[in-house]
Specification:
Elements (H helix, E strand, L loop, with lengths): L1 H34 L12 H4 L5
């Protein structure tokens, strides 16, 4: 019976830790989204000059 109770406590602790990490991750994403306003859904387009090295 004692082992079962220890397992329940450990399980509850792991669930609480996972929830804390999930909330922290959501907060980081929200701060990042607030810092960088959403664009029109389009990504950055790079030109050919940025993609290739200069010739000698």
């Amino acid at each position: 019976m004692f082992q079962y109770r220890l397992q329940e406590l450990r399980s509850a602790e792991l669930i609480e830790r996972a929830e804390t990490r999930r909330l922290a991750r959501q907060a980081r994403r929200a701060r990042r989204a607030a810092k960088h306003p959403a664009q029109d859904g389009e990504g950055r387009v790079s030109g050919l000059r940025e993609r290739f090295a200069r010739a000698a």
